Sequence to fold (302 residues):
Amino acid sequence: TQTCIVEYNGKSKKGYAPYNPKKANQDSLVMWEDAASNSLLLCVMDGHGEFGDKVSQDLKKNWPPLLFGHPDIMTDVPKAITESLNTAEQNMLKKMAGNADFSGTTFVCVLIRGNELWSGNVGDSRCTAGDRAEDGSFVFRTITEDQKPDSPGEKERILAAGGRVFAVQYDDGIDGPQRVWLGNMDIPGLAMARSLGDTIAHSAGVISEPVITYEVLDPEKTAFLCIASDGLWEFMTDQDVISQTAAAVSEGKQLRPIVDELINTSNNLWLKEEEVIDDTTVCLAWLTGYPPADEAAAADAS
Fold:
């Protein structure tokens, strides 16, 4: 496919919960080149709840063909993403037959065609760009915004639907994240304002419609993209991730080991802060001209 992405790689790593050694990886990663529409699709999903792995795996398998089979994939990408995702979700809910009442997934995708980029986001997985600063360093630029229950616009919609938004105090007295609850019962406590699945939370104003963004990438300005689940973002800022990636590139490291290093860094931060590690999925994509020729040569030599 003809895009401004010259290389990409990703990995999904199962987390760790000492009380659940058989834990499934509930994250899913899609890296899909579609020759017919000349598009590259990179997508991360982070499932949650008892059947979260089933939800994200079903959409990983069944959504991309619906997207690329959509009649408007060449002419109206936002419509193609939104409608195909809605169809895939409805099909998944039929198969799950009630098992998605308290289970669901986040969803973040970028579709790149030439220098054009569309993003679609549902929940709190995230895409951020590494942009060149004038001093030669790299700075993050948000491409997608997390949709938390107390985000502007999201909270108003949940309250209007009769839901409630509040945080629960942990045993140590610290407030946890803001969560969505039914008007009359303290369920389900979903920590995001949009998700796929989660039929109970959807009755309290949570929606599954993706927020779509569009931009024309400038490879002179933007060097790389990072798409990841909140396993990466929980204890690392966007700037942490961009800086670690750029530093590794300047040391001549290859793309895949850099993905592994980001996952290892975030896993270690989880263990320092918690007794568990979240499933962590990271996908990196280099734009045309990155790494610079001298650093690319160093990477080949190593």
Remarks:
- The first strand starts at residue 5 and ends at 13.
